[in-house]
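[Discussion] Sanity-checking designs against the backbone

I'm trying to build intuition for which residues belong where. Below is a structure token string of 213 positions. I'd appreciate it if someone posts a full sequence so I can compare it with mine line by line.
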């Protein structure tokens, strides 16, 4: 600091300057990544709005939608949809192989929570704990996706994040709408594609963007 000059934290824009986090392998910038994150909670928001309109609870509406979804799909379709979580596991394995162990753990958590949530939704509808389990798992799924996705998006920057994750988040949003409009096959196609594209997007950020170095 030059004598007589303002302290770094008092300089205009200092709080918005890039802050390097070497243990994560990315540089964080102030960016409007909440635009991307908001797409990851569309489903619960729609359920809450429907519940309010019908004088019901969001949990009851979500459980009803899940059961209607399962009823409209064959066992083969449910298994095929569930398998779209495989790219998350593949990403975690590739990150371990590449030495990005912390990122591999984070990607593994995303994979585990998504696999567990969709597995319970698709194959556990006859269980007495179905409603409680799905609500707890979707909360974890949203948390994992938003936190880790937000970290990666902040590291890549707004423009790169929109380019990499924008199409995937759009498909996620549309899939949530289709699910609640009684289109189970439309949902699994779009949401399954979201799984694949978001995993690929994470791989792009971690291996191809300058901030991943």
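Best answer:
Here's mine. Compare freely.
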């Amino acid at each position: 600091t030059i004598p007589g000059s303002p302290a770094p934290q008092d300089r205009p824009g200092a709080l918005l300057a890039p802050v390097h986090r070497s243990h994560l392998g990315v540089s964080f910038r102030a960016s409007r990544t909440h635009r991307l994150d908001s797409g990851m909670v569309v489903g619960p928001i729609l359920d809450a709005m429907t519940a309010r309109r019908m004088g019901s609870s969001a949990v009851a509406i979500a459980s009803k939608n899940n059961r209607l979804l399962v009823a409209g799909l064959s066992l083969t379709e449910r298994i095929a949809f569930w398998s779209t979580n495989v790219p998350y596991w593949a990403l975690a394995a590739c990150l371990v192989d590449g030495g990005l162990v912390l990122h591999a753990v984070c990607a593994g958590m995303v994979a585990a929570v998504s696999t567990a949530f969709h597995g319970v939704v698709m194959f556990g509808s006859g269980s007495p704990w179905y409603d409680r389990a799905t609500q707890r798992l979707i909360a974890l799924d949203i948390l994992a996706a938003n936190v880790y996705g937000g970290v990666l998006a902040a590291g890549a920057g707004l423009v790169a994040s929109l380019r990499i994750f924008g199409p995937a988040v759009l498909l996620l949003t549309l899939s949530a709408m289709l699910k609640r409009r009684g289109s189970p096959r439309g949902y699994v196609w779009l949401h399954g594609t979201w799984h694949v594209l978001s995993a690929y997007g994470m791989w792009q950020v971690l291996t191809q963007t300058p901030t991943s170095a």
